């Protein structure tokens, strides 16, 4: 019964988001739309900075890998992490090989999206995080893959925890150009 209610709540939250227009001048081929249990988040992918990572995010979105995946690690004042469509707890990655680092000089600040990895700089695979605030300690050490262009208010509503009990989820993730 609780699972049914959770699914219904996710659907109710996602329906109003679908009607929302995408930001003007958005390159839809290089943006993902994340409909969450809290609302819609739109991320502009930085294929100019991290082309391999941007392509991976789009590939996984098109494969449905990110659908119904929880925000498993959400730290107040720092970031919200998601993208483990294998184990749903931050320990898994996709069937695709890990990616080599694509570091840049773009600073980690509120709304920046980065790729999660292990201590190996070349271990990013599927998981990513959205910054709540500045994170200068990450600068030049984690690949910046994008930035939130709409929905930071939604990111702010994501339930906190490490791990998160009864976490919010990415209900559906799509490449913006694929939305009909």
TrEMBL record:
GO MF annotation terms: peptidyl-prolyl cis-trans isomerase activity
Domain of life of the native organism: Bacteria
One biological process term in Gene Ontology: protein folding
Group of enzyme by EC: isomerase
Annotated Gene3D superfamilies: Cyclophilin-like
The enzyme's E.C. designation: 5.2.1.8
Signal sequence interval, chain numbering: 1-19
InterPro entries linked to this entry: Cyclophilin-like_dom_sf, Cyclophilin-type_PPIase_CS, Cyclophilin-type_PPIase_dom, Cyclophilin_A-like
Keyword field: Isomerase, Rotamase, Signal
Every PPIase cyclophilin-type domain range: 28-180
Reaction catalyzed: [protein]-peptidylproline (omega=180) = [protein]-peptidylproline (omega=0)
Family: Belongs to the cyclophilin-type PPIase family.
Function: PPIases accelerate the folding of proteins. It catalyzes the cis-trans isomerization of proline imidic peptide bonds in oligopeptides.
The protein, known as: Peptidyl-prolyl cis-trans isomerase
Organism: Bradyrhizobium valentinum
């Amino acid at each position: 019964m609780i699972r049914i209610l959770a699914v219904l709540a996710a659907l109710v939250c996602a329906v109003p988001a679908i009607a929302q227009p995408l930001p003007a001048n958005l390159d839809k081929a290089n943006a993902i739309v994340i409909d969450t249990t809290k609302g819609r988040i739109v991320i502009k992918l930085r294929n100019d900075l991290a082309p391999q990572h941007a392509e991976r995010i789009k590939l996984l979105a098109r494969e449905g890998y990110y659908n119904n995946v929880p925000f498993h690690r959400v730290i107040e004042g720092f970031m919200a992490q998601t993208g483990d469509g294998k184990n749903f707890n931050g320990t898994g990655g996709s069937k695709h090989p890990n990616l080599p680092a694509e570091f840049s000089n773009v600073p980690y600040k509120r709304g920046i999206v980065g790729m999660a990895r292990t201590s190996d700089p070349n271990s990013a695979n599927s998981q990513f995080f959205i910054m709540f605030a500045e994170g200068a300690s990450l600068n030049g050490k984690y690949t910046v893959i994008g930035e939130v262009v709409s929905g930071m208010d939604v990111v702010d509503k994501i339930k906190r925890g490490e791990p998160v009990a009864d976490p919010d989820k990415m209900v559906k993730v799509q490449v913006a150009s694929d939305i009909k």
